[in-house]
Amino acid sequence: MSSKLEREARIHALLGDIQQQRLDLSAGRRDFLQSTAQYDRGWLTFLSMRRYLAIGSSALAIWSVRSPNKFMRLLKRGFGAWSTWRMLKAALPQR
Questions:
Q1: CA distance 13 to 6
Q2: Residue 74: how many CB atoms within 10 A of its CB?
Q3: Per-residue pLDDT tens digits for 15-29
Q4: Assigned domain for 21 exists
């Protein structure tokens, strides 16, 4: 009789451990989803803009073939603006 009671007590203890682990997993999932929400929104934005990016890149390819000098000049200016932005961002103090 004693072994049966011990066995039931062990089963209840294990079930309590399992319930606590489930609660811990649920809390961890919630924290993970909150911390990655920004990346998820960015990814969904990218996916919704995929069609427009394809059309824009096709138009850019046609335009670069028709006037390669203008395209290269614009590309160099864009790279210069991006480099300037990175330099300013690194030089300014972070909040």
A1: 10
A2: 14
A3: 999 999 999 999 999
A4: yes
